[in-house]
Amino acid sequence: MAIVAVGRATRRMRGRNSMAPVLLVPLLLLVMAARVSSRTTTYTGSSSSTTAGVRASATPAPPKKHVSGRKQRVPALVVFGDSIVDPGNNNAISTIVRADFAPYGHDFGADHRPTGRFCNGRIPTDFIASRLGIKPLLPAYLAPNLTAHDLLTGVSFASGGTGYDPLTAQLASVISMTDQLRMFEEYKAKVRAAAGDAALSEILARGVFAVCAGSDDVANTYFTMGARSSYSHASYASLIVAHATAFLDGLLAAGARRVALISMPPIGCVPSQRTLSGGMGRECSPGHNEIAELVNAGMGTAVDSLRAKHPGARVVLMDIYGFLLDMMVRPEGYGFKESTLGCCGTGMMEVAVLCNGVTSAVCGDVEEYLFWDSYHPTEKAYRILVDFVYDNYLKKLIA
Description:
Keywords: Signal. Belongs to the 'GDSL' lipolytic enzyme family. It holds the Pfam family Lipase_GDSL. One of its GO terms (molecular function) is hydrolase activity, acting on ester bonds. Residues 41-68 are annotated as: Disordered. By secondary structure, the chain is α/β, with parallel strands linked by helices. The protein has a single domain (24-38, 67-398), classed as Rossmann fold. The chain has twelve helices and eight strands. Helix 2 crosses helix 12 (379-398). The longest helix has 24 residues, at 286-309. The N and C termini lie far apart (49 Å). The model is unreliable at 1-42 and 46-71 (pLDDT under 50).
């Protein structure tokens, strides 16, 4: 697979306002992703026993009682979604939508290594797991070194590039939300085999199940690829809501009792979408944000219906749209200097394989940037966002 050469950029690069050469980059990236496989990538599960892929342990280690000095009230964090919460599942599948190479991981741990996280460091679910007092990092379910303790304290099934719309995962050759739910059933069997029915029941009753998806439906499937061109903004938002509702209904039916749904962000304001749809001034794209707002409104109604259908379950819609938009338009209020460009390369288009150690320079001070690449926030931005989510939503969910 050829990598599009975007040049070795610097932060003072004069050519930033000349967008013509880069407008085809996301199209090429997504077309290449769609052609990695002639069919949808489907997760088929373990080929052997239900404990396959888990490092053997005679007696699974009990979950740690304290992380960062906080008492543990939640036994596990289990996550579904896209690249915002994918800690490396895409490393294990055939797709170019991945981040297991430099400069990803630029600030991750003492060895600054890429892990498959689409970020310079930790991602939201790492911070959430820590704030919940579970563990400092949430591993990928498909990680080759997964242990029984990892299973008992939670994993992420998320796959970068996926969405609620089934077509989104197909175009990117990544793990669909439906297949993530199938993986969850396999996970339950592994937990039961490792620690018994009581441990599984505890996770289902008191664990936190977080879901984050939808951005790739809007940015990639609808706008960049034009794969749902017959849909209006409103009708496509309704399609996303319908698929998201079906996923959440399936998750609740599978036993999850505490579900946290992360809302759509103002996707039209991320650097790549500014470049593609924001005109010469690279303003926020109103069409992207209109769909995001419609989805969020629809999900508010859907959550109410799901609560009524599944009495005893707690389902919360964590609305990050307004808070993240404020970070984007008032970056200085959160300790940032740049919110319209990413730190990687030119900051306008580089993401996934386009943000690499060969063609992409890294900005001088990552701490000044809201975005790491042209699509994903920095570790610093995620930390601030998770503090907001925890204080305003998660505290109530686990109370």
